[in-house]
Design brief:
With about 375 residues, this protein is mainly α. Helix 1 packs across helix 2, helix 1 packs across helix 11 and helix 5 crosses helix 6.
Length: about 375
């Protein structure tokens, strides 16, 4: 189903944002020597190994290349992705999808150079080592031999599963997608509450896989709903539906989406936690808005329901009008008003690399859907 074109003013707004992003990135990229993880006084703070966010800087550069067709962005994207090479062997994190999909998988899809495909496959091999067959989940945190956190599952992992779907597609070996499906089924069984909200964390006994209960690290409480986690879940379940055709995953994505849409404030910029006591007048997280918008655009295409697309366009418009760094000459990022970890008072009202990435992805899904499809594969089985 081909989506209807948005109104002309919306398209004009989105083109202006994409142009602004390209201009800002063109000015900043030559000075970037590592991986942006967040800002301090509007300037990027870096991680040398990429932490969990290293894939988003090359991914953002790829989006800028798709929009501008300026090969400088392609060169910068490849050079940045190259720096992630050691992480292919990292078995100590579930975030290999975040690290390698927007960087190496996209590089493979846009260049055809098998080096990038092979590296992403190696990362998928590392990721499946974190699978617990007794509980049928991928553990989120900690080294494989570390007992602490061995039974901890987080909603974010739904977004790392597409690396496994890619690996099965590229190799013809179903083991990767099988693990992704089992993890998604486990997440589907324990995370969504009756109202469609989700906790950040769910704990299991790693020895026998028995469910223990909900918890949180980045949300307000185990019974609240951290907005970025809800966005990861909504987008991740939609992706898993697209990769498998499993309509239960689509139904779960809709439940999560309907809760998130219902929790939005009139300004369409999500608060950091939909269940925190100060909402709807609480600290915002623009990154949650950008991720939610991408998930809703995906969901609209998967379900044929234009209402999801309309909310996504309102989200992207709100971010464009109220959350850009346009008014600051010193800002290095594109999106402001993001919150990394409110309970830890870590990164409140800053910029975050994934906000920039998903804002550009969302806007280019509208302006240049064929190009985005080339980069990240928007197909459905």
């Amino acid at each position: 189903m081909t989506a209807a074109q948005p109104p002309v003013p919306t398209l004009r707004t989105f083109r202006a944002v994409a142009d602004y992003a390209v201009d800002r990135l063109r000015a900043v990229a030559p000075t970037v020597t590592a991986f942006p993880v967040g800002t301090k006084f509007e300037k990027w703070v870096y991680s040398q190994n990429g932490d969990w966010v290293g894939g988003f800087w090359p991914g953002t550069l790829w989006m800028a290349w798709l929009h501008s067709e300026d090969d400088a962005f392609r060169t910068w994207a490849l050079a940045s992705a190259e720096k992630l090479a050691p992480r292919r062997y990292d078995t100590g994190t579930h975030d290999l999808g975040f690290l390698f999909y927007p960087s190496w998988v996209t590089a493979w899809r846009l260049t055809g150079d098998a080096k990038w495909r092979d590296g992403a496959l190696r990362a998928a091999d590392s990721l499946i080592q974190r699978y617990n067959p007794r509980g049928r989940f991928i553990r989120a945190w900690g080294a494989l031999n570390e007992e602490r956190n061995a039974g901890r599952v987080i909603i974010d992992t739904m977004m790392n599963l597409d690396l496994l779907a890619f690996a099965s597609g590229a190799t013809g070996d179903g083991k990767y997608l099988d693990i992704a499906v089992e993890h998604a089924r486990t997440t589907q069984r324990v995370f969504p509450r009756p109202d469609g909200s989700t906790p950040h964390v769910y704990d299991f006994d790693p020895a026998d896989g028995a469910a223990i209960g909900p918890n949180t690290v980045q949300g307000y409480s185990p019974t609240s709903c951290w907005s970025r986690g809800q966005a990861w879940g909504l987008y991740g379940f939609t992706t898993m539906y697209r990769r498998t055709g499993n309509r239960e995953f689509l139904a779960t994505a809709r439940r999560l989406a309907d809760f998130a849409v219902g929790a939005l404030t009139p300004d369409h910029v999500p608060v950091w936690d939909y269940g925190a006591p100060q909402q709807p007048y609480d600290i915002k997280d623009a990154s949650a808005g950008a991720i939610t918008a991408c998930g809703l655009l995906d969901l609209a295409a998967a379900t044929g329901r234009p209402a999801y697309r309309e909310v996504a366009l309102r989200l992207l418009t709100a971010l464009a009008e109220t959350c850009l760094t346009r008014n600051s000459a010193r800002a290095e990022a594109i999106v402001a008003r993001c919150t990394r970890n409110r309970p830890s008072e870590d990164g409140v009202e800053i910029s975050l690399p994934y906000a920039d990435y998903y804002l550009l992805e969302g806007i280019l899904r509208v302006l240049r859907p064929k190009e985005v499809d080339r980069a990240i594969d928007l197909s459905t089985v």
